[in-house]
């Protein structure tokens, strides 16, 4: 099942069309010069992704043909290796990764629920202590009133 799922991803969203990166050496040279200079220019920014000849899927759909711009600069996305690019900057997950992500989200939700329950218990304990202190204060006040009378 997992193998087929990964295979489906590779078939539906390939990272290559088998065509050459450039039509000629001059075009290739300019692609490399522009891409590398942009890397140098924007090296200080962690949230700028730069790529050359990378498949871009504007929408995750079989009906949309990807494009492969010679050079692509995406602001607001982290640097990193990608086989292809989609607008939100995330790569497509296979079924194993989706299951792992789902489990992590469930664990975070369970932890949040546990923290909320613990906070509720602490609040209930604080309320109980407050009630006990009020009772002691009332008893002390009653004792003092009876002692003065």
Automatic annotation (TrEMBL):
SUPFAM superfamilies: Restriction endonuclease-like (SSF52980). Residues 99-108 have a biased composition (Basic and acidic residues). Residues 98-120 are annotated as: Disordered. Residues 109-120 have a biased composition (Low complexity). This is Uma2 family endonuclease.
